Amino acid sequence: xxxxxxxxxxxxxxxxxxxxxxxxxxxxxxxxxxxxxxxxxxxxxxxxxxxxxxxxxxxxxxxxxxxxxxxxxxxxxxxxxxxxxxxxxxxxxxxxxxxxxxxxxxxxxxxxxxxxxxxxxxxxxxxxxxxxxxxxxxxxxxxxxxxxxxxxxxxxxxxxxxxxxxxxxxxxxxxxxxxxxxxxxxxxxxxxxxxxxxxxxxxxxxxxxxxxxxxxxxxxxxxxxxxxxxxxxxxxxxxxxxxxxxxxxxxxxxxxxxxxxxxxxxxxxxxxxxxxxxxxxxxxxxxxxxxxxxxxxxxxxxxxxxxxxxxxxxxxxxxxxxxxxxxxxxxxxxxxxxxxxxxxxxxxxxxxxxxxxxxxxxxxxxxxxxxxxxxxxxxxxxxxxxxxxxxxxxxxxxxxxxxxxxxxx
Length: 409
Prior knowledge:
By secondary structure, the protein is α/β, with parallel strands linked by helices. The chain has twelve helices and 14 strands. The protein has helices spanning 25-36, 44-58, 79-100, 145-148, 154-170, 191-197, 227-233, 249-259, 279-292, 319-336, 387-398, 403-408; strands spanning 63-68, 104-109, 122-125, 128-131, 183-187, 198-200, 207-209, 214-217, 239-243, 268-272, 298-301, 308-311, 314-317, 342-346. The strands form four sheets. Strands 1-2-5-8-9-10-11-14 form an eight-stranded parallel beta barrel, surrounded by five helices. Strand 8, helix 7 (227-233) and strand 9 form a beta-alpha-beta unit. The radius of gyration is 20 Å and the shape is globular. This is Phospho-2-dehydro-3-deoxyheptonate aldolase. InterPro entries: Aldolase_TIM, DAHP_synth_2. Residues 1-26 are annotated as: Disordered. It comes from Streptomyces edwardsiae.
């Protein structure tokens, strides 16, 4: 059987940032060939269906809920973990639908979030320096030389875990109105994984990423001439870009020209991650410039990544900061008459103790306290909202009804 060739030129990977230093290039080649011979994980027509739904979000007629693990762990592709996250997302989506009077498009950070960018390629603990953990598709989280050495064979395990996760999503035992469509998304970071899984659709002769329905470029890999943006520009899936507080209006307009030259509603999403203290200052100029240029995009608030702090030696986030950034996001859109299109959460269906606060919206009156962080801190990377915090946040978001949302309904 011949191995399918990726329709996306491999040259797009040469200048890619945030890639692992694989110790054995020959093994990387063999793994890429294996991946290229495997079936795509998702179908092009499902990615097209998501793009159409996101088009409704861009037009102000729907809302996007995106959420899941910061970094998926291969060993946690289990029914309990997957069904717990999907059930929590579905309940949150139902709360928002009832309040906003709009359909909610539900997308998980699932079945592909196995690679992570890092601020430093190395980590030092008690005088020992090893490669940083870059996600289960690259290396292991344990701080040992064996675990931290990048191993390209992990990409094959990530593929199998993603396939298992997709089967569990499809077969989840969620009855009644909670049984909604759940699409999957992840950061398109690891080019040795993404390129072999890109395929040409026989219906349309267009290239699609076969690794997920919606892919995004991160704040660290969104250079307009970088490999990740080039890759996203060449696939027909809906795509997104994470936008930090240092972005300028021209940056967004250039990205829009590259990723959505046809100005198709639903093709491009901007996921803004500024931090609670900066959202009201940074966002108006960005939204105003894009709206003024007539560029159709989905605006989404990521209230997680700009609000990370260290408490008792652990990375954490305050529930109140997460909500405050979302509230500011809605306020800015209300003031501009634009549509606050969605939220992007790092969350889980388990009752972990990774983010502080929750409980009647007061940080110290209830919920997770600093002394609790060590009891169930299970994230391999960044802290996640637990099930109770996620559902409480949903009730608070439901109260942020805006004229644009109500009018759109």
